[in-house]
Each structure stands twice: as C-alpha cells, then as structure tokens.
Design a protein that fits this description.
With about 250 residues, the chain is an alpha/beta fold. The protein has one domain (about 20-200): NAD(P)-binding Rossmann-like Domain (Rossmann fold), CATH 3.40.50.720. It is built from nine helices and ten strands. It has helices at about 5-20, 30-45, 55-75, 80-90, 95-100, 115-125, 145-150, 180-195, 200-205, and strands spanning about 25-30, 45-50, 90-95, 105-110, 135, 155-160, 170-175, 205-210, 215-220, 225. The protein has a ten-stranded mixed sheet, sandwiched between helices. A hairpin with a 4-residue loop joins strand 9 and strand 10 (about 225). Helix 2 (about 30-45) packs across helix 4. The protein is globular and about 45 Å long. The chain starts with a helix and ends in a 22-residue tail after the last strand. Bound molecules: nicotinamide-adenine-dinucleotide (NAD).
C-alpha cells in the first residue's frame, strides 16, 4: 500500500470513529432544504430534531418526509426497516431550546438573510451544548461572519447541501477562517452518515463558486471561503493564521 493510501485509510478510520460519537442533530428551518436535511439525518441514524418558527410548515415537512421515505421503499431504494427507523428518529418542534438540547450538531437552513442567520447563530450558541458544532447551509453568505457572531467560532462551518437533498450526493463543506480541523472532521463524518460524498472521491467534493464577486474555492477535502467580513465581526482566527480583516 502506498503512503498516500495508508494515510487516507487512517483518515477514514478516524472519521468513522467521529461519526459513531455523533448522536443528536438539530435542523433549523423546515423549508425546502431543512426538511431534506432532516430526512437524510434521520436516515443516517441521528436523533433528529427539526425546528421551524411556523407550526404549519413543520406539519407539512413531517408529511413530506414520511412520503419521501415511503416512496424510497416503494422504489426499492430504501429498506423498509431503515425508513421505519428514520421515522422514529425524527421529531419536530417550534421551540428552539428543545431543538438545541443535547445536540452534537446543528444545521441551519433558514432564509438567506444575514441578519436572520446571525440572530439564529447567536441563539443556538446560547442554547446548544458547548461542544456542539453549528453548521450553516448558506449558499453565498460569509460563514466567517456567522462564526464571529458566536463564542465558538472554531466550531462553526458551512455544510452546503444541494436540492433535492435525498438525491444529491454532493455536499460542500465550507470552512470559515476560524473553523478548526476537528470541526471539519465532524462535518465530514456527519456528511458520510447522511450518505454524502466519499473522501476518496475528489470530484464529488470539489467546486468553485463566486461569492460577492470573489472567488470561493473548494478543495477535494474541504472548502475555504474568502468572503468579506463586516466590521462587527468578532471572529478569532486559530493559531498560525492571521486575524480576519474587515
Ligand atoms: N432551495 C435551494 O435549492 C437551496 C440549495 C442550497 C442551499 N440553500 C440555502 O438553504 C437555506 C434555506 O433555503 P430554503 O430554500 O430551504 O428556504 P425556504 O424558504 O424553503 O425555508 C426556510 C424555512 O425557514 C423558516 N424560518 C424562517 N425564519 C426562521 C427562524 N428564525 N428560525 C427557524 N426557521 C425559520 C421558514 O418558516 C421556512 O420554513 C438558504 O440559506 C438557502 O440559500 C437553498
């Protein structure tokens, strides 16, 4: 075995270990993306709490997830036992404190407005256990800015799913300037359990996007975003990196 292959196998082993330690996931926002993310999280065996401010949306989301799981069974793509387990793993709530209780990972999928996302991240930071990773499904906003709105910037990361979430294997893992390597590993591990990507499949993880006119490059292992940072950003850069500039 080559050194590269051995290293990749070790990384995969560490990721499997990390994945096994993750138990509880909150998905924030039950719209198009949130309900899809909740579906794959529940299918991945996570205790999944789907939160939305709108009770009617939560009801629709639950029905749509149950319907999609049944369709998967009917088409022979999802074992009936896995669909049944996913249904029991999934709960909904309109109380953020209930959604955030005891979680290892939150994935935010509220509308694409920076003020709303900052408010959501501040609330999650207050309510979620200190070890929890806070991820955003933002398409184009600065994850560095969201990280800087929390007291755990190193535990904030982008997990950008594609629609329809249960069919698209692609997921972009996007680092903020402050994101730690451990957080990146947790995001990858969670993604694997949700049936997304394979570290050995570079193409499935890579992309280039533009954000506010600046290039955003994703590598085979993760993505780094060089988005503008507001003057109010309180982000702390990890050791060895320069502090974010406004
Ligand atoms: N739709 C896509 O194809 C797509 C793809 C990738 C990423 N995204 C990103 O995913 C995020 C969500 O997009 P979407 O298309 O699912 O939006 P959506 O409008 O379908 O759903 C947003 C949900 O958030 C809820 N919401 C509003 N305020 C909230 C709050 N304070 N707390 C909790 N929930 C709240 C709304 O009730 C709604 O159900 C956006 O950041 C978007 O850019 C979307």
């Amino acid at each position: 075995m080559t050194a590269g292959a051995a290293e990749s196998r070790m990384a995969e082993g560490r990721m499997t270990e990390t994945a096994a330690q993750l138990r509880r996931v909150a998905v924030i926002g039950a719209g198009t993306m949130g309900r899809g993310i909740a579906q794959v999280a529940a299918l991945g065996g996570f205790e999944t709490m789907l939160f939305d401010v709108d009770e009617g949306v939560l009801k629709q989301a639950q029905q749509s997830i149950v319907g999609a799981l049944q369709k998967g069974v009917d088409l022979g793509k999802v074992p009936a036992s896995a669909a049944e387990a996913a249904r029991t793993h999934l709960r909904t709530t309109s109380r953020l404190e209930d959604a955030a209780r005891g979680i290892d990972l939150a994935i935010e999928a509220v509308p694409e407005e920076i003020g709303l996302k900052i408010e959501t991240f501040r609330a999650l930071d207050r309510l979620a256990p200190p070890h929890a990773v806070l991820a955003t499904n933002t398409s184009a906003l600065s994850i560095t800015e969201l990280a800087g709105a929390t007291d755990r910037p190193e535990r904030v990361i982008g997990m950008h799913f594609f629609n329809p979430v249960h069919l698209m294997r692609l997921l972009e893992v996007v680092r903020a300037l402050q994101t730690s390597d451990e957080t990146r590993a947790i995001a990858f591990a969670a993604a694997r359990r949700m049936g997304k990507g394979r570290p050995s499949c570079a193409a499935a993880w890579s992309s280039i996007r533009t954000t506010g006119g600046r290039a955003t490059t994703s590598s085979a292992c993760c993505a780094t975003r060089s988005a503008p940072i507001s003057k109010t950003t309180r982000g702390r850069a990890p050791r060895g990196r320069s502090a974010p500039q406004s």
